[in-house]
Amino acid sequence: MIAALAIVMLILLLGWSIGHTLSPTDRVLRAVAASTAAALWLAAAIGHVAALRFASPADIDAAASGSPDSPRVAIAQAVLRNTLEQVVLAIPGYLALAWVVEGSGAMIPLLAALLSVGRTLFWANYARGAAAQAFGFALTFYSSVAALVIVLVALVVRLI
Prior knowledge:
84% helix
């Protein structure tokens, strides 16, 4: 978890140092692109659950009757729930960062890339248990929370 936090901080420093000031419209467009990437992770997780639950007539009948899901479906549903949680944090973070922080133009796509790497690692390692999931979860979570914290700090600084 500490390694993931360090990576997020380094990526944010890189984004801050290479970023030039963009117009508010260009920053929001980057945030919309990043939000779309996050939403596509959610769509992929939903599609994965659907593919597992509705692969055959027997699967459809089992789902309709309320039968317990297979272990593969249960894992896919857990990944879906976690992906939804992460996307709910990421999208407002990207949009708020774009709106509030003038130098966020490079940070936003970098944060979206961290989310994608984190989701990939989390999803690929989910069946191996919490220890295997931790790094992917942390990259995703810390990158989204970092965006929200940066926005909060920027707003407090403006108010003072």
